[in-house]
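Reopening this one. Same input as before:
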Amino acid sequence: MTDTHHEQPHAGADEVAKVRELVKDERIAMLTTVAEDGSLVSRPMGVQAVDFDGDLWFFAAEDSHKVAEIAHDSAANAAFSGSSSWVSLSGSASVVRDRAKIRELWNAVADAWFPDGPDTPGVVLIRLHADTAEYWDSPGGRVATLFRLVTTKVTGKPYEGGENETVRL
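Same output, byte for byte:
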């Protein structure tokens, strides 16, 4: 991508809609938390199918490392890699033990991890409340991006890339 990065002062409806559009079909994010020793830890997590409004939701076991890391330091990031875009959402995470919210978000994928259903002892939600979203959007997908990269090599002109924005949510 080119150095056409723009940072928005605060997101309006259009900016949030753009981020929502980029993540709407993504079901797996790399969730990064901070370990007790300060190191960063990333793992793939299933994102619950909820329209993005600044929050992402994940199911977890209460006794997992990620839940302990969030209790120690709530800074977190979720990264997505789609067919033509990449999104990084940074903010704070919290552990949600609300049974009504767990039931609301429950689905077949959660059932695979927690076969006793939404009342499984120790099942919790992780809520990532994003403060910022940075995205890179390459129209036409990866094939078009590859074609443009090859074209730059042939023409000697720098790669123009796609759109890169940071949105304050």
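So the earlier flakiness isn't reproducible anymore. For the record, Residues 148 and 154 are 10 Å apart (CA to CA).
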